[in-house]
Amino acid sequence: MYYVCPNIVLPLTKPMKLSYAELAGPRPVEWFVSHFWGMLFQDSVSSLRKHAEMVSGKSASRCGGLHSRNSSSAQQRVSKLDKTFKSGTGSLETASWKETSYWICTFSNNQWELMHELGSSWEQSSFYLALRSPGCKGTAMIFDELAMPLTRSWCLFELLQTFQLTGTREAGFTGLLLCTRSGVMNFGACSMDTAISIGVRLSSLRLQDASASSDKDKRMIDR
Questions:
Q1: What tens digit of pLDDT does each residue of 22-31 get?
Q2: Which side of the chain, N or C, has fewer Cβ within a 10 Å radius?
Q3: What is the DSSP letter of 211?
Q4: Which of 79-83, 147-151, 179-183 has the lowest mean pLDDT?
Q5: Which residue has the higher pLDDT, 70 or 145?
Q6: Would the pLDDT of 32 be above 50?
Q7: Rounded CA gap, 102 and 119, in Å?
Q8: H or E stretch covering 62
């Protein structure tokens, strides 16, 4: 995203000074994306496609089977997903993964009006408002082998908000799904090498060392 934003998003949106989403045609938020800007863009795209295919039902039966063999709590999460999607745009069997909509800060924020997007407090930020919008079904966190999102202050903020929503929203909110280029970890659709690498990384990760591109943002989040 460090390349995509200045070299693609900004030139495309410069004439109208809009967000890319406004330029391309916005849609209501279905999934909030939490990610590290330094991840390869193609890996981010692959991770979200795997997620979209899963939540639209293309691989739902396979994921459901994995859950039913692993634990009853996992099976309950599958049941919750099923109810969530059937109450939305269509059933798991008929929904198209290409119709899945995401809120991604690079494209959804107006990069020409970032001060307005961030607001004067985190409660006014576009991140907070998008994640807590009524139609949001959960957070898709794009994970890599180094678990880089957990080293970023904004991602930890989004993680906290997701956990709070999971415990308070009555229905329609799935919670956190960890997305990798090989599949969604929550459903066992992830390569063994990736899972092991993430496990090793998490064993030594210190959340208090998280950083942000802007010191002002970090101070606002840490308050």
A1: 999 989 999 9
A2: C
A3: B
A4: 79-83
A5: 145
A6: yes
A7: 21
A8: helix 60-70
Q: How many domains does the chain divide into?
A: 1
Other beta carbons within 10 angstroms of residue 202's beta carbon come to 10
Distance between CA atoms of 50 and 199, rounded to whole angstroms?
Answer: 21
Closest CA to 104 of 216, 215, 214, 1: 1
Q: How far apart are CA 52 and CA 14, in angstroms?
A: 30
- The parent domain of residue 137 ranges over 4-222
Residue 183 Cα distances to 51, 115, 144, 211, angstroms: 7, 35, 11, 27
Question: Contacts for 7-12 with beta carbons within 8 Å, 24 or more apart?
Answer: 9/106, 9/107, 9/111, 10/111, 10/112
- How far apart, in whole angstroms, are the C-alpha atoms of residue 183 and residue 179? 6
Q: What is the pTM of this model?
A: 0.80
C-alpha span between 4 and 134 (Å, rounded): 29
Q: How many CA atoms lie within 13 A of 54 on its CB side?
A: 29
pLDDT band at 95 (very low <50, low <70, confident <90, very high): low
Look at phi and psi of residue 147 and say left if phi exceeds 0, alpha if psi is from -120 to 50, else beta: left
User: Which pLDDT does position 106 carry in this prediction?
Assistant: 97
pLDDT > 90: percent of the chain:
50
Measured distance CA(57)–CA(223) in Å, rounded: 40
- Of 208, 159, 174, the closest CA to residue 31 belongs to 174
For the chain, the farthest-separated pair of C-alpha atoms sits apart, in whole angstroms, at 54
Q: What is the pLDDT of residue 64?
A: 38
